[in-house]
Amino acid sequence: MTLAKSGLDAALFLDEPEEYVVTAALGSNRDICFVSKNGTDASVEIIVSGNDTPLSIADSGTKITINSATGSGGAATSTAAQIVAAFNADAEAAALFTARLPPGSTGAGVTGALSETHAAEGVAFTDLAMSDSGDHKTYQAASGSRYWDEDKSLVVEVDGSPVTTGFTVNYLRGRVTFETSQGASTITATGTRRSELAFEKVFGCFDCTPKISAKDIDTTSCDDAGYESSISGAKMWEITAGHFFYAGKIPISKLGVAYIWKIYSTLNTVPFAIGKGMIQSMTNLLVNPNEAQKQDITVKGQGEFYLE
User: Fold this and answer.
1) Rg (CA), the chain
2) Measured on CA atoms in the order 48, 53, 55, 61, is the torsion positive or negative?
3) pLDDT in tens, 119-141
4) Contact, 66 vs 46, CB < 8 A?
5) In whole angstroms, what is the distance from residue 124 CA to residue 188 CA?
6) Dihedral-angle region of residue 95 (phi above 0 means left; psi in -120 to 50 means alpha; beta otherwise)
7) CATH: 3.90.1580, 2.40.30, 2.20.25, 1.20.120. Which one for 199-307?
8) pTM of the model as a whole
9) 187-246 per-position pLDDT tens digit
10) DSSP 223
């Protein structure tokens, strides 16, 4: 892989299939994901207590308690990386969970306290306030509160009263669009979202070319005086790249499933566009954790491709 490049990068993120516990999106390399090996019975708690205490792990049945190291003033000093290492080295803790850092995290930040949290398929949210886009019809969840789980129950409320019709939901985007204006009403949502902290980056593409197109639908009729007419039909998107990286973390057979893809400007860690798509074709896939492969790959989207 050359150090000099231009254009766009894309990454495939696989949602954690097991139940998990995540910290509260602390940022600054402080977060941890604990993946359950025991379903929803297991729980994790991080305690910050005392002065000059060492980092320790304790268990009580299906509950794992992490005692963060503290300084002379009683503040936590254990970093996310230190907690992950200590947790996975403890036989009883490792029997219930596997601890890991989120994609891109160094784990260098101090995590702090976490109240006891049971493993779950995603993160529940209650009465999430939605922002009006300005037309009083489209309401958007803030970044960090998106990626709603379409397989879980979702309740939309207008001024505290549940509504079941008259709107559509974009689950990936965390957006609710009403058919009619809601005026100055307060719109909230209650459901379950996928946590980005539980994602795993399993595929990377470099120097990508994204393409968005629409298929024309012929509407020519006798009223067109011999001219051809059409309307824009279903929109499609795809990404092509000549370099990609694959570390072999998921079976090749599963690469044909639609996963979340994020598109980045070169050297930028914040994605500017996100969509759900699958690998359509690739050439000569080899697992090499040390370098990118100079082979062609095409990803085709399923559903919307939108700006983050």
Assistant:
1) 23
2) negative
3) 999 999 999 999 999 999 999 99
4) yes
5) 14
6) alpha
7) 2.40.30
8) 0.79
9) 999 999 999 899 887 777 777 777 877 777 777 777 767 677 776 666 778 888 877 777
10) G
